[in-house]
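Revision sheet: structure tokens.
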Amino acid sequence: MARVVATPAALGAIEHLTADVGPIMFFQSGGCCDGSLPMCFHDGEFVIGSHDVRLGSVGSSPFFIDHRQFEAWKHTQLILDVGVGDPEGFSLAAGEGRHFITRSRVLTEQEQAALEGTGPGARG
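Predicted:
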């Protein structure tokens, strides 16, 4: 059970993007669009705070979330996908005219219990 997963479209975009620019990372903040647009950066370009939470990896790329956003969303699994349109802010594109987007689904009680036993690690 993973706290974050990616659709085939997102995995394909990650593969192409990393082939073009090298390693990347994702950060899910709570600032924009109800938190549905993750930011994609060159790996290490965005400074992770000591309280931010690493949810896991998508493809070969680490995926972090703001600790306040994690508290609000800890009962969900995040699903990285690709949407049509240019990315917002400083995020890397998911391809020509595409951006990364986050969807979510509510975890079952059993999934939540399993994840609470392991907990995500923070990087600071």
